[in-house]
Amino acid sequence: MSGAIYLLAMMTCVCTAHAFIPPVQPFAYCVRGMSHLTLKPEISRQYCHRRSPSRKIVGMGLADDEKETSGRKMPTVDKTMQNMADGKFGERGELYVGLQFFFIFLIIIAPAFEDTFESLSLLVGTLICSSGLGLGAVGVLDLGDSLTPWPKPTSDNELQTTGSYGLSRHPIYGGLLITCVGLSLISLSYPRLFFTFLLLLILDVKAEKEERWLSSVHPQYGEYKQEVPKFFPRDVSKMVALFKDLMGATTPW
What we know:
Layout: H1 2-20, E1 28-29, E2 37-38, H2 41-51, H3 55-68, H4 77-85, H5 94-108, H6 114-143, H7 171-187, H8 190-217, H9 221-227, H10 236-246
Antiparallel strand pairs: 1-2
Helix pairs in contact: 6-7, 7-8
C-alpha cells in the first residue's frame, strides 16, 4: 500500500515538471518499476515555442527591422555645414531661403499684429462694401423698368449695355457679392465668407439661365457677352468714368 502511495507521489512530481519546466530536448523519465514515460513531440514543440523563442526567428525580425530602416539616417552636422558652404554665394538662391525664414518668423509672432490686421480689415472691408453697394445700386437704376427678381426677363425688357452694364453683365449680382465679401472682412467671419462663396455658385447658375433667355430674345447678346465680364468689373478706366459720371462730371462713355 505504501509503495502505491510512493509511486503516485512520483508520478505527480513528473507531471508537475512537465507543466512548469521548459524542455530543451526530448525527455524520457524513468520511474522505478515502470516503463519509460516520453513527452510527445508536438507537445515538446509547443512548450519550446512558448517558453523559449527561437533565436533564428528573433534574428530574422531584427534583420527585417534593420532592412526597413537601412535607407534612413540622421544627417551629420559636418556634412550639413559642408553642403551649406557648397556653391558660390549669391547664386544658390539665398533670397528664397531668407524670405522663407522671415515669414516663418512672422507666423510665430503673428498674434502681435492682430490689432493692426483688425483695423486694416475694417478699413478695406468698408471700402469693398461701399463699392459693392454702389455698383448694385447703379445696376438697379440702369435697369429701370426692366428690373425683376426672376431670371426670366420681362416680355418688354430692353437690353442694357452701357453704364454699370458696360462694367458687368450682372452688376446687381456682382455688387451683392462684393458687398458680402466686404462684410466678411469687416467682421472677420469665415462662415460669412463661406456662405458668400455658396451664394456665388447660386448666382452663377441663375445668371447662366438668365443669359440663355436673353440670348434668345436679343441676338446681339452673344457679342456683348464676350466683351463684358459676368460679375466683377475689370476695366479700371470704365470704372473711373462711371464714378465721374455719378459725381456729375460730363465724361463720354
